[in-house]
Specification:
The protein has 14 helices and 18 strands. With 462 residues, it is of the alpha+beta class. It has a six-stranded mixed sheet, sandwiched between helices. Strands 11-13-9-14 form a four-stranded antiparallel sheet. A three-stranded antiparallel sheet has the order 4-5-18. 43% of the residues are buried.
């Protein structure tokens, strides 16, 4: 891999400039106003795959946003790596909280990134990490050191639940045949503590609507006599967890995987400083399910959180109304053996059952996904571990993540393939938040490490 690594070293600035071009495109999949931008991002990803050396590249249209497919088959007898990622991004809102424009990438130094970090929406999630794979592939391809066949499936709807990906995968099952799926949409513990994500939580996401009177009412004339949907919704949300922060939905925990003390002790080996954790997000105390550590609460235990709540008058000044409706978006992170459809139904039944007669309730399911676990004795994991050990100088720690990538379980169901989650971001990178960023160290370390994954995976499959 010497030629490949030399090529990477000599082209760092070009790689960065090209990434900036992609980051400038506001490819927000959730907003119909950005549809043309999402298409433009797909076209740019396809262009870079072609230039990197892919023999076949196609922008595959779906009922929503397109999926970019590319491949280079050097020998059908060799193993094939299928890279998955996404080029769509979260909305930049609230825009006023950004220190610099969300779609005008800029490099700034931080305490965690003294060499600089790229500040832009999508810098880490997931444009920067997708681009690592394209550039690593280019380095191997152009220097004759690609040891495996490579396929790419880069979608534009991950941030809205990948509604059309399952259809695409089922229709293109033969085309997507591979030996392993490689994803960089996760992170590491720290720049001097590499890790590989071995587990992901699933997801059930719903929107609830509470309706009281048939119109907004004068709060003086009707207040105290008519149920206020915002008050009712707040009370109902309060009933979803008890004083020990355990979820109260009947049947919610019935299928939850309970780790052994040995497994929990192994997890606890990962370095962690609770004071540093609190300081990083400026809180005075942590909170969560009784009997579990902060790390466990955010990885191996299910959760329920309100992601947004609204209703009534929220404009400037005062308007004394008793609102007709109140709304909330609620997400539940799930652990192995919990089924998102089943959990959504349990939530619906319980939420409707606790509603007082003074209001009507509607529960609208959004997207969901199954949890997933990757065994650490698989060839894919071993290849990733060996590759990271080469570039970081130390063996990575296997770590379960609290996040969700629903398509990982889908890949296993439809394609019969395990996924290796070899990401390079940090928890402090503010993904989904204002001032999202991605360290230059992490961007270049990813490009440097990925070729070694291909090399190790090829060797393990000889």
């Amino acid at each position: 891999m010497k030629k490949t690594q030399d090529f990477i070293s000599n082209n760092q600035q070009r790689f960065l400039d090209e990434l900036f071009e992609l980051l400038r495109i506001p490819s927000v999949s959730a907003d119909p106003a950005n549809k043309s931008d999402v298409q433009s991002a797909a076209e740019l990803v396809a262009k870079h795959l072609k230039e990197a050396g892919a023999d076949e590249v196609e922008i595959c249209q779906t009922a929503g946003h397109p999926i970019v497919y590319g491949e280079k088959i050097i020998d059908p007898k060799l193993p094939t790596v299928l890279v998955y990622g996404h080029y769509d991004v979260q909305p930049a809102d609230p825009i006023e909280l950004w220190d610099s424009p969300a779609f005008e990438p800029i490099i700034k130094k931080t305490d965690i990134h003294p060499d600089g970090a790229i500040f832009a929406r999508g810098a880490c999630d997931d444009k920067g990490q997708v681009f690592m794979h394209i550039k690593a592939f280019e380095a191997m391809s152009k220097n004759g050191e690609l040891p495996c066949n490579a396929k790419f499936m880069i979608e534009g709807e991950e941030e809205v639940g990948s509604p059309n990906l399952a259809i695409f995968i089922k229709e293109q099952k033969e085309r997507l045949a591979a030996d392993i799926i490689l994803v960089s949409d996760t992170g590491i513990i720290a720049n001097d503590v590499p890790s590989i994500t071995t587990g992901l939580r699933g997801l059930s996401y719903v929107e609830v609507e509470v309706t009281g009177p048939n119109r907004d009412l004068h709060s003086g004339l009707y207040g105290g006599a008519v149920a206020n949907p915002i008050n009712v919704l707040s009370d109902m949300i309060g009933q979803l967890q008890d004083d020990k922060h355990k979820i109260t939905i009947p049947g919610f925990y019935d299928k939850v995987e309970v780790l052994t003390e040995e497994e929990r002790n192994e997890m606890a080996r990962a370095p962690y400083d609770e004071e540093e954790y609190k300081a990083s997000i400026k809180i005075n105390a942590v909170q969560g399910e009784e009997g579990y550590t902060t790390r466990e609460r955010s990885s191996i235990r299910p959760t329920l959180d309100v992601n947004g709540i609204w209703g009534g008058y929220i404009g400037e000044g005062a308007k004394t109304v008793l609102p007709s409706k109140a709304f909330a978006k609620i997400s539940m992170r799930l652990v192995p053996h919990q089924d998102p459809d089943e959990i959504t139904e349990l939530f619906k039944q319980y939420f409707e059952s606790i509603a007082p007669e003074s209001v009507t309730v509607k529960v609208n399911p959004h997207h969901g996904g199954l949890p997933a676990v990757t065994p650490i004795d698989s060839k894919g994991y071993i290849a990733a571990s060996n590759a990271m050990e080469k570039t970081f100088g130390k063996k990575p720690i296997p770590l379960r993540s609290g996040g969700s990538i629903p398509i990982v379980a889908l890949f296993e169901q439809v394609l019969g393939l395990k996924t290796v989650l070899m990401g390079f971001g940090l928890n402090s990178d503010a993904i989904h938040s204002p001032n999202e960023h991605y360290g230059l160290f992490n961007f270049y370390k990813g490009i440097e490490t990925i070729p070694y994954f291909y090399e190790e995976f090829a060797n393990l499959n000889k």
